[in-house]
């Protein structure tokens, strides 16, 4: 059994919107569903998209979905995330639609804990977000990797970098071969609602 959770978030309640993460999520889903010869690859990839105020991806929904993805002994459990990322001295975060400050996002340490403890044979984590390279590192000692056997991580950026997307709904690094020019950096508001 192959399982995939594909997340793309363009809409954020309190931080800057993106324009291509949802498109990227759809492109990844379409690519994963079938092999080049048309045979089934990932039979029912789970797609979560945050495209507007009526369709947010909340932190709770993101966490529940990642927990469900890594809950059993699948042959492959693949997690793809396109959206804002955030980093501070306590580690990195994936920003859900309801994030207010970035550090209230879904901690990469929790993603890694769920993946590392999963009984799935192969766990693949693909992060098309700013600071994705923080996944698998220890916030207190960057020289220590916290990646167990069977876990593969691909990121669009290092822990210190911003990820890029093509303006106007264009692609991120994993769905485009070039033309990256707009930062997928979060604009955090100083005011609290």
UniProtKB/TrEMBL annotation:
Residues in Peptidase C14 caspase domain copies: 1-177
Gene3D superfamilies xref list: 3.40.50.1460
Coiled coil: none
Protein name: Caspase family protein
Biological source species: Mycolicibacterium komossense
